[in-house]
Write a structure and sequence with these properties.
heterotetramer, A alpha/beta (1150), B alpha/beta (379), C mainly alpha (181), D alpha/beta (140), A: 1150 residues, alpha/beta, FAD/NAD(P)-binding domain, Alpha-Beta Plaits, Rossmann fold, five-stranded parallel beta sheet, B: 379 residues, 2 domains, two-stranded antiparallel ribbon
């Protein structure tokens, strides 16, 4: 039976949307990826570098095997994948149905530009009279209403800003390919009713709106308006509120009764704004305050019109929906705006600063003051702008701003020289990731970034100086007031829910938290309140890249589960591009044939011939012996043109094709079709986008341009000449998984994989499973951990696809391309050889534990670790009711020389325990001694709660750590109050140390599977940002505490992420390599193993029995370093081998 | 520890032979690998010896250096044989072998490396001529070469490599036979250089020796002389090849026979890339080159080949001079190589053959290094 | 302090402590405060003292008395704490406890309000005279002499008694007294 | 005399510098047309032989350009490239091919302007150095 292919809709094509989409597409499901904006890539397109490396690595998200199915270039240029359909300028309207059967309505902006015709020549942009703020540069520069969506976009096609466009038609007139088509008459169809008792208002509004091409009718009273509405229908009504007789609000109600879809905009004097707001609650769309600027009216009208235009929805049937709409940033100009954003010169948001320093930004790679254009030397970053500030309605922390600011400061220093003075003003430095603390220390010590613990109250211009510099007044920890001058102040603006997404969520009854962020279920970072709808990335709260990517993958896993449970199929990688036996034979024949190249040049309706001497080009290329034929054709982009080409191919019977044309007709999918039509592999078609080169050099003389194109074509001909027609390699791949570790991460990973239909062996060294969860009672949110664990264990133990090996350890493991063999060893069984498991992927979920207290002297329950405390309280060995004073010491043995990382969970745990104690015994005095309170994200609420409950916090300095002394039955804690500048002594009944988390991943174990450990002995990610659960060995993953310190919820998310990363391999019987892939010529190989050592992916290994180098073609990414390191040429990069390279060099130099 | 090898029948050579026989008889080793005068021949070739009696033909110290045995030892050791072999190598042969170990072409596991103060060598062509014209006997040669530091022998030239060698002393071995600074009338000294070496020397039960007092001084003198000669040689060769035009003329007799690379001990490739299909050009290619330049010499890619070889292994050049020895056109490839090797080795602070744990410079990298070469600022 | 125990002070400041419990010691109040330079301890320091039950230290400082109720701190506090109100509660506590070191300010306020109560607006000369009398210190008026003359020269303080307003505020004062219990 | 137009080959990596070159293209930033780009997957795959070949076949200048340290798609290919270029810079000048004819740069995906600038500067620089000997004398 032919079952349907699973399909998921991913709403939001930023970082996390791309991750979810790719994970599913790689697994073999269909994905519809939509985004409301005009380009994909989201926020990251605007950032050149990201923390915690100050580097990029976005491209590392791309598929690793079957690479030819997707684009292989910088993601800022765009993305395509055979299994992903991308719809831009598209929004989600509604969702109906159940998981596995969702009906989703979308609305898409009408496209006035036919992207298949647009050559990106830029003429339209030149003539466009409208200049608006360029949102890509955060408004720091201007752009036209017709523009290129993002500077690096792969497609050169222009797009139109519908709200800014005046429909003057200049672009339509000038477009040389006729790609722009306005449907101007449509505005006439848009009927507007203006209701006002003042004639002058009515008339002038009518005039303004008519000028824009709308149909306008006026009425002088509500009664009249209603009468008119009986006659005909209107799309929009503008009504005054204060009118004699029926007032605007009443009219609104009555009009809505007649026409529910009518858009109503209220007009009112400033004093009566309240009633306008009330009217909005009754269904008015918006309001205008009188007197208003015609431009405001027009803009608002256009917005409504635009909605009207795109109201026609597209309906999609999918199995699951992933919401990945990301986040928005707080707008500092709203509210009290104490920092004078938009008022004072040189106050910018973090995003604006990113644009200021970007190579594609307004400074063109140089840092200049956005207002005065003077060079910038002193820069300050203000943290918590719109976060941790109830004055802006933000009782939460935004998670990543501290790190973003550190990165920006480092980048400013690195890019623009050490003369830049960077100061970061902060409250708590929330370096909550594994390597974040180290990053901060490096910024401080190596980059000389100044960190000042102070909150700036407001900002003033230094009027005395008169150079636009800003002065910030702050108080240091010692109470001294300082006034510092800055050229530029960067506001680290906090998170706000993504508007459209929240709207969509509310409309579709998806629960949000008190601030409007999507609420996810208990112990899940991705499940929303509505089954079948998942939240990826930052939608449920701002996340750093690694966490966004993790959640995106976790969301993909849930979608995968839904599709599997709904019985949906995947497109097997091996079947999709399947080449049957006959084809294989043809290809084999072709491989032995001499190349016969057909070179086709498009004259593009004589456009090219004006700039190029096509005939001389033809005669040059004709001299290349393998060039069977060089043809000049016209308008390849049209269907007729394309047919001529196919005819020509059939006539000349070439086995290679080189195509010189413009971008639209060399789009990948057409080439694919062509390959099929002509009977050869698409990779044997080489294409040159001539128009881009012509566009780049508008003034180059014909002879030079011809030369240039000649050279470019010759390189391609050279490539075609040496292309290997043999199809991509297929590697048989084992479809079982091995999960090592039976903690919550291991359990989740195993269950997730098993739920998607693959067999899992789970190995646990102890005789119980559950790991750390066994000793935990409740989360800070009050969730019952035992109940959760019991349910998971029950599911695991009863799962038909899971085999559990308790009291078992890993004896040894050996990897072969496509399969890993692991020898198990059961505790107590000494003589027998253990069981060998063959598997395709390994998930290292070996966990971690709370660091012991050093030295652990006390057994009187006076000095405890957090874990010990929680256990003794559960056992009632300590009764909270009997305690008078409890002291908690944070960062006890972490964030120091020995364990230089933040363990992330201890502050939350301390807050949980403090609140627990206060709940059980309101009289107990709890003191928390901390360095930086890491109550990140929405956990900030618990910090506030603890304070409200009367918990007293003492901040201490890492140089001056608290000490404890046993005094009979009390513990004396000595610390120093930094603010009061005095020593403090507390007599406590009990002292609880937050000792941090130690990973439990033996180096030998990691090593056996080709994974590595980082400097902190956690699992080393292939890329800490973009591949956060992968190792460099593409078959090995990690999750939970062996990966990084994390909460239960986060551990579950990493496990789900690891699961989908594994499933995308397990779902294929055979993995397909890329066309550009390493190979070895064994006959001339000396087995020096230089290639083995140099391969970053471990794709090469030595087969000791066969005495040869073997390559895992799926692991190989085609970088070619192996070929460069091999002196004999036995290591080769198929597709870009030395013959081809040397020939290309010859070609460009001839 | 140090032991003494005494004269046997008033002969140093026989004394050495005796030492090797004892070594073979200890059962610590199964075979010896050392230069042996072939039966009924004047040729001295490295040979694998298992019979004690065969040691009588061994010439451990001779002016003949037909090939760098580092290569041969790699053949003996790239896989396990189940036999233990003691190999006697010249310092440059040891260096070559150490480089080959790094490239997984050999292993020390079953070897006892015995080094020797280098007895120098004549170039292969001079050696043939020398042998025809009243050569010195083996002992006399030793006496002469270790007492004088001449550049010639009976009017024949020691090879350029030997005359410009700044390091004719063994390192990285299990034991070394020392002659420089040793009173040869009293015999020679064997010093242990590793634990294995020491154990073996102990089982030999031979007379202990003391450190030769003058050795350091002599070693320093020889090194200095070598350095000076090397400097002059490099100045000279640089002058001869400091432009592409000059390099063209320097190599104009090259017939692309690839003997230099075949005999190079560190050119470890089974097959040189220049012998593969990459350089088996299409006929039309030759025409195209000819059309471009007016004429093209065949075989082509001569300078390309030499420059590539410099790029591939100059960092590993041990300065044995076998490339020049092997050249049928008498091109002094060695001098060309050494002059470049000096630069490349200095650039990576790499000294080939001295430490088998030092990775080849192009197989490793550091995140922060050579930052001065990044960018287009003029140097 | 001497006259009032820390415990008693703590009782009096219980409400203030509760008000500022969620303070995160960011220092915005201090940096905002235009009178900070006249304070012996910073506002942040003072809140910290209160939180850590050092009420005695709070009342041995005069910082809160220096508060001129400009409301900057309240406006800018990220925790949304009503700091200005907290300041005035401290002033009230000081007055209620009749702490000697705040006597001058308490009497100053009382004299001011008395004048307002009586006339519906302040009569500077009467108010100052009453204040001096209540201080029972003959030296004090001299300290104000030069300031007084300056103000008089600028017409800010008039020797004559302005008319009007008498008794109109009585109801208001009555209500306040009622509210305050 | 005809103005010297140098022949320059630039090996650019597919991920960063090629993106920058593309960006320069779409941003209409022209750079000298005599610079010939050869796209490679990674600078780490640039065999020293390619550079030698380019010079011997008459290139006046060779540029290798890839991702900034840490940005390499293949993690560390650019570091490996740096060692190879260092090696060539030790060998080639010895034979009269000036050090300044061979360059290695890091040009990130967003550095379209920098790309065009570097190309222009490089061209000027090579013009200043003059034609390569290999163009004047036929290499055997």
């Amino acid at each position: 039976m032919n079952k349907a292919i699973g399909k998921t809709l991913v709403a939001g094509a930023g970082l996390s949307g791309i991750r979810s989409a790719l994970d599913l597409a790689e697994t073999g499901y269909k994905v519809l990826l939509i985004d409301k904006s005009d380009h994909i890539g989201g926020l990251l397109c605007q950032l050149d570098n990201q923390f915690p490396t100050s580097k990029c690595g976005y491209c590392r998200m791309l598929p690793m095997f079957d690479r030819d199915k997707s684009s292989q270039h910088c993601l800022r240029k765009g993305l395509f994948h055979e299994n992903i359909e991308i719809l831009l300028s598209t929004q989600l309207i509604s969702v109906e149905g159940e998981p596995g059967d969702l009906t989703i309505t979308l609305k898409q902006n009408p496209s006035l530009i036919d992207s298949s015709l647009c050559t990106g020549c830029g003429e339209c942009e030149r003539v466009c009279p409208v200049l608006v703020n360029d949102s890509f540069n955060e408004g720091l520069t201007k752009r036209k209403a017709i523009y290129l969506p993002s500077p690096q976009s792969f497609s050169n096609a222009y797009t139109i800003d519908y709200t800014a466009c005046t429909r003057c038609g200049e672009c339509e007139k000038i477009c040389p390919t006729g790609a722009i088509k306005f449907t101007e008459q449509d505005r006439e169809k848009f009927k507007i009713l203006v209701v006002d008792d003042e004639k002058i208002v009515r008339d002038s509004m009518k005039e303004w709106l008519k000028e824009e091409g709308f149909s306008v009718t006026t009425a002088d009273s509500g009664q009249k308006a209603l009468e008119l509405m009986d006659d005909r229908s209107f799309n929009m009504m503008l009504t005054d509120i204060k009118m004699p007789g029926m007032d605007g609000v009443e009219l609104l109600a009555k009009a809505k009764e007649k026409n529910e879809d009518l858009c109503v905009i209220m007009m009112t004097a400033y004093a009566a704004v309240d009633s306008a707001v009330d009217a909005m609650k009754q269904g008015a769309l918006d309001y205008l305050t009188k007197p208003f600027d015609p431009d405001v009216l027009i803009a608002m009208t256009k917005k409504v019109y635009h909605e009207f235009e795109i109201a026609e929805g597209r309906v999609e049937q999918v199995d699951a929906l992933i919401l990945a709409g990301g986040t928005q940033f707080f707008k500092p100009e709203l509210g009290k705006n104490p920092y004078g954003y938009g008022v004072l010169p040189g106050v910018v948001t973090g995003m604006e600063f990113e644009r200021l320093i970007s190579g594609t930004g307004p400074g063109k790679g140089k840092l200049i003051h956005p207002k005065t254009s003077r060079p910038v030397r002193k820069i300050a970053w203000f943290q918590c702008v719109g976060s941790r500030d109830v004055q802006t309605g933000a009782g939460f922390c935004s998670n990543v701003c501290c790190m973003i600011s550190i990165k920006e400061a480092i980048l400013a220093k690195e890019k623009f020289g050490p003369d830049i003075e960077a100061t970061i003003f902060y409250m708590d430095m929330r370096t909550i990731g594994k390597s974040f603390d180290e990053y901060k220390l490096n910024a401080q010590n190596e980059n000389q970034v100044r960190f000042v613990r102070a909150r700036i109250h407001s900002l003033d211009e230094n009027v005395a100086k008169g150079d636009g510099s800003l002065v910030a007044r702050y108080v240091d920890m010692g109470g001294n007031i300082h006034k510092d001058d800055f050229d530029l102040v960067v506001l680290a603006t906090g998170q706000r829910p993504a508007e459209l997404m929240t709207e969509a969520a509310l409309k579709n009854s998806i629960e949000t938290n008190q601030w409007g962020f999507i609420e996810t279920g208990s112990f899940s970072m991705v499940k929303t309140s509505r089954p079948g709808i998942l939240s990826g990335g930052s939608l449920s709260g701002l996340k750093d890249i690694s966490e966004s990517v993790t959640c995106a993958s976790a969301a993909a896993l849930e979608a995968c589960k839904i599709m599997h449970e709904a019985g949906k199929q995947i497109i097997g990688a091996a079947d999709a591009g399947a080449i049957d036996a006959d084809d294989m034979e043809d290809l084999a024949v072709m491989a032995r044939e001499n190349p016969r190249i057909l070179t086709v040049l498009c004259s593009c309706s004589s456009d090219f011939s004006q700039r190029l001497d096509l005939e001389s080009l033809k005669s040059h290329l004709d001299r290349i012996p393998e060039n069977e034929s060089v043809e000049i054709m016209d308008k390849l982009c049209t269907d007729e043109g394309w047919q001529t080409l196919i005819d020509m191919i059939q006539k000349t019977n070439p086995n290679r094709l080189v195509l010189g044309a413009c971008l639209p007709c060399i789009h990948k999918h057409r080439i694919k079709e062509l390959g099929k039509a002509a009977g050869f592999h698409p990779s044997l078609v080489e294409t040159l986008d001539i128009i881009s080169i012509l566009n780049q050099y508008p003034d180059l003389e014909i002879s030079k341009m011809t030369q240039r194109i000649n050279r470019e074509l010759k390189i391609l001909i050279s490539k075609a000449r040496f292309k290997n027609p043999v199809p991509n390699e297929r590697l048989e791949s084992n479809q079982n998984a091995l999960v090592i570790g039976g903690g919550i991460a291991g359990i989740t990973a195993a269950l997730s994989i098993a739920d998607c239909g693959y067999h899992v062996d789970l190995v646990e060294k102890n005789d119980t499973i559950g790991g750390n969860l066994v000793w935990m009672d409740k989360t800070v949110d009050g969730l019952d951990i035992q109940e959760y664990l019991d349910e998971k264990v029950r599911q695991l133990e009863s799962h038909s696809q899971v085999t559990i090996h308790k009291k078992t350890s890993i004896e040894s493991a050996a990897s072969h391309p496509g399969e890993i063999a692991t020898l198990l060893k059961k505790e107590g069984e000494t003589n027998d050889l253990g069981e060998t498991i063959l598997h395709g992927v390994t998930i290292l979920a070996t966990g971690g534990s709370q660091a012991p207290l050093e030295p652990d002297v006390d057994d009187s329950l006076k000095i405890l670790t957090q874990k010990e405390f929680e256990i003794v309280v559960q056992d009632r060995k300590i009764e909270p009711e009997k305690l008078n004073t409890v002291v908690m010491i944070q960062c006890s043995g972490t964030r120091d020389e020995k364990h230089n990382y933040c363990s992330r969970v201890c502050c939350i745990r301390a807050l949980k325990n403090a609140l627990f104690l206060k709940e059980k015994n309101p009289d107990v005095q709890v003191y928390i001694l901390y360095r930086d309170m890491m109550s990140y994200g929405f956990f900030e609420e618990y910090y506030t709660e603890a304070k409200q409950a009367g918990v007293i916090f003492f901040q201490y300095d890492s140089a001056n750590k608290p000490v404890t002394e046993m005094h009979e039955d009390k513990v004396l804690v000595k610390t120093f109050d930094l603010l009061l500048d005095m020593p403090v002594e507390i007599e406590a009944d009990c002292v609880i140390h937050a000792t941090g988390i130690l990973p439990d991943l033996p180096e030998t174990l990691a090593d056996q599977y080709g994974a590595a450990l980082d400097t902190f002995h956690f699992f080393k990610e292939a890329d800490s940002k973009f591949r956060p659960v992968d190792s460099m060995n593409y078959r090995v993953f990690s999750c939970g505490l062996s990966l990084k310190p994390c909460t239960i919820e986060e551990a579950v998310a990493t496990a789900e992420a690891a699961a989908i990363r594994a499933i995308r391999i397990l779902s294929h019987e055979r993995l397909v390599s890329g066309k550009t892939v390493a190979d070895t010529r064994t006959a001339i190989c000396s087995l020096c193993e230089l290639c083995v050592d140099t391969c970053p992916y471990g794709a090469r290994s030595v087969d000791r029995l066969e005495e040869k180098i073997v390559i895992d073609p799926a692991a190989c990414q085609g970088c070619g370093v192996c070929a460069a390191v091999c002196p004999s040429g036995s290591a080769v990069l198929e597709g870009l081998d030395m013959r081809l390279m040397l020939d290309s060099i010859d070609m460009v130099l001839s | 520890m140090m032991i003494k090898i005494e004269h046997e029948d008033n002969s140093l050579t026989k004394g050495l032979q005796q030492f090797f026989k004892r070594l073979l008889e200890t059962r610590e080793i199964d075979a010896l690998f050392l230069p042996v005068r072939l039966k009924d021949s004047s040729s001295i070739m490295p040979s694998l010896v298992t019979e004690s009696v065969q040691v009588d033909n061994a010439v451990p110290l001779s002016p003949a250096f037909p090939l760098n045995s580092g290569r041969m030892v790699s053949r003996l050791s790239y896989k396990l044989s189940g036999r233990k072999t003691a190999v006697l190598l010249r310092p440059c042969e040891i260096r070559a072998f150490i480089e080959l170990i790094k490239l997984k072409q050999g292993s020390r596991q079953e070897l006892i490396l015995i080094g020797i103060d280098c007895p120098k060598a004549l170039s292969s062509s001079d050696y043939t001529a020398y042998m025809e014209k009243d050569p010195l006997d083996d002992d006399a040669y030793i006496q002469k070469v270790f007492s004088e530091n001449d550049k010639t022998l009976n009017g024949f030239n020691f090879s350029s490599a030997c005359n410009t060698c700044e390091n004719p002393f063994p390192v990285n071995t299990d034991m070394n036979i020392l002659l420089h600074g040793v009173d040869l009338s009293d015999g020679m000294i064997v010093e242990s250089a590793s634990e294995t070496g020491q154990n073996i020397l102990e089982t030999l039960n031979m007379q202990q020796a003391t450190e030769p007092v003058k050795r350091d001084e002599v070693v320093a003198q020889i090194k200095e002389a070598g350095l000076k000669a090397n400097e002059e040689m490099i100045k000279d060769i640089e002058e001869k090849t400091n432009s592409i035009t000059k390099l063209n003329s320097f190599l104009d007799r090259c017939i692309n026979c690839y003997n230099c690379r075949n005999m190079c001990p560190v050119c470890y490739c089974k097959e040189c890339v220049f012998n593969t299909d990459v350089f088996y050009h299409q006929p039309v290619q030759y025409h195209q080159w000819a059309e471009k330049k007016g004429a093209v010499k065949l075989p082509t890619d001569t300078v390309f080949y030499h420059l590539t070889r410099l790029a591939h292994i100059s960092h590993a050049c041990v300065g044995c001079g076998q490339c020049s020895n092997a050249c049928p056109s008498d091109i002094n490839v060695f001098e060309l190589f050494k002059s470049v090797a000096q630069n490349t080795q200095a650039a990576f602070e790499y000294s080939p053959g001295t430490d088998e744990n030092e990775p080849p410079p192009l197989s490793v990298f550091h995140e922060k290094e050579f930052e001065d070469i990044i960018g287009i600022e003029r140097e | 302090m001497g006259q009032v125990s820390n415990e008693r002070l703590l009782e009096q400041t219980e409400t203030v402590k509760e008000m500022i419990q969620t303070c995160i010691q960011c220092g915005t109040c201090t940096a905002s405060c235009p009178n900070n330079e006249f304070m012996d301890i910073t506002p942040r320091h003072m809140w910290r003292l209160l939180l850590t039950d050092h009420a005695d230290a709070v009342f041995s400082s005069k910082s809160f008395i220096m508060c001129s109720s400009c409301y900057y701190c309240t406006l800018r506090c990220p925790r949304g704490l009503e700091l200005t109100h907290a300041m005035s509660l401290l002033k009230q506590a000081a007055s209620k406890l009749k702490l000697k070191q705040f006597q001058r300010s308490s009497l100053f306020y009382e004299a001011f309000l008395d004048s307002v109560k009586k006339h519906g607006r302040v009569r500077e000369m009467e108010f100052m005279t009453n204040y001096f009398i209540s201080m029972k210190n003959p030296v004090i008026p001299f300290a104000y002499a030069s300031l007084g003359l300056k103000l008089m020269a600028k017409g800010k303080v008039r020797p004559e008694f302005p008319f009007g307003g008498k008794g109109k505020l009585t109801a208001l004062f009555k209500k306040v007294a009622e509210l305050e219990g | 005399m005809e103005k010297f137009e140098p022949v320059i080959i630039a090996f650019v990596c597919n991920w960063c510098t090629y993106t920058a070159a593309d960006l320069a293209g779409t941003s209409r930033l022209s750079y000298p047309t005599n610079i010939r780009l050869i796209r490679v997957m990674c600078t780490g795959m640039v065999d020293p032989q390619y550079v030698i070949k380019a010079f011997l076949e008459g290139a006046d200048g060779v540029l290798i350009s890839g991702c900034h340290p840490g940005d390499c798609h293949y993690i560390n290919g650019n570091y490996k490239a740096r060692r190879r270029i260092k090696l060539l810079k030790e060998i080639l000048p010895r034979f009269g091919i000036e050090k300044d004819r061979l360059h290695l740069t890091w040009i990130g995906a967003s550095d379209g302007i920098e790309f065009a600038e570097i190309m222009t500067q490089l061209n000027d620089q090579i013009i200043e150095i003059g034609p390569s000997q290999t163009r004047l004398s036929k290499v055997i």
